[in-house]
Specification:
317 residues, alpha/beta, Rossmann fold, 9-stranded mixed beta sheet, 5-stranded parallel beta sheet, 14 strands, 24% strand
Length: 317
């Protein structure tokens, strides 16, 4: 019998989140997935019990399966047995969440709705084609959903008492998982924007694809990732995977530098709450300048070129 009782009502589908953790830390979007599931969550991974403390004010019911390593194939069967009575199972669309979700959906024999930006009782809206469009799916039965980090606007900064935790005593299934040979530090040029601590974003104020290549060089020298607005990705200058916004990637970096971005609401709504923001624009009155901690009135193209020149000198390139 499942140790996780389903929350059953006659009118509202039951929901629960499944959040994989590493070293006691929630992934990007973990708190949002829990909030979307009404505060009910199964945490799984090394330090799962410890991770519950970071859900203070968000989680109401927590079950934790403390298990070493990361074995999504071996976890899927036991997790499916625990959450099989729930109508909607919500996972964060973090790298680990995207890996575990299809395995869990297969075990539960139910559809997977990936990249959701809105989850309702009767429908799920997902970002498709790299965020260039959205698709609304009617939900007529049980499903597994991955939720894009940041889209609910609920961060991991809620206040309240740490939730009580029920410890699950489960055994991993006999399943073949990929063997981890070595773990390297993330490459800032290719890492998931949702997890990037520093981001340099470029907008329509930058004049060419070559300028964005120059911006990427500056970002790499600063240990930052590169993002862009939808106008830029629609031009084909930057892949849609680097698009920041409500129909792209929702981010929450410590530092965000915006070059030639005016600040359309579709973009700013996907910025989260950066600790520090610097904006370079020729228009001192654009929305992005009013949001900045430091606003620089200048041609973003010239600033990027000068930064590239200075940083190339420092690195000897």
């Amino acid at each position: 019998m499942s140790a996780v009782p389903a929350r059953s009502t006659s009118d509202v589908p039951s929901r629960i989140a499944v959040v994989p953790v590493r070293a006691g830390a929630l992934p990007a979007g973990g708190a949002e997935a829990v909030a979307e599931a009404g505060g009910r969550v199964v945490l799984v991974g090394e330090g799962a019990t410890d991770a519950a403390a970071s859900l203070a004010g968000v989680a109401t019911e927590v079950w934790a399966w403390d298990t070493p390593g990361y074995l999504p194939a071996a976890w899927a069967g036991p997790l499916a047995a625990e959450v099989g009575d729930e109508d909607l199972v919500v996972l964060p669309a973090s790298p680990d969440g995207r890996d575990l979700a299809p395995r869990l959906a297969a075990e539960l024999a139910r559809p997977l709705l990936a990249g959701a930006i809105e989850v309702r009782d009767d429908s799920v809206t997902c970002a498709v084609h790299g965020g260039a469009a959205t698709c609304r799916h009617h939900v007529g039965g049980p499903a597994v959903v991955t939720l894009q980090p940041g889209v609910t606007g609920i961060g991991a900064h809620a206040h309240g008492d740490a939730p009580a935790v029920t410890v699950l005593d489960l055994q991993t299934a006999d399943a073949r998982d990929a063997q981890v040979v070595e773990v390297h530090a993330p490459d800032v040029a290719t890492m998931d924007l949702a997890e990037a601590p520093r981001i340099l974003g470029g907008g329509a104020g930058l004049d060419s694809p070559e300028r964005f290549a120059q911006l990427a060089q500056v970002a790499t020298a600063l240990g930052a990732s590169t993002g862009a607005t939808r106008v830029v990705t629609d031009r084909g200058w930057v892949p849609h995977t680097r698009q920041i916004g409500t129909t792209g990637v929702v981010v929450d970096p410590q530092l965000y530098l915006a070059f030639g971005i005016s600040g359309a609401v579709q973009h700013t709504a996907g910025l989260g709450d950066p600790d520090h923001m610097v904006t370079v624009n020729t228009d001192p009155h654009c929305p992005m300048m009013s949001m900045a901690d430091l606003a620089v009135v200048a041609d973003a193209n010239e600033v990027v070129a000068e930064l590239a020149k200075l940083l190339a000198g420092e690195t000897g390139q």
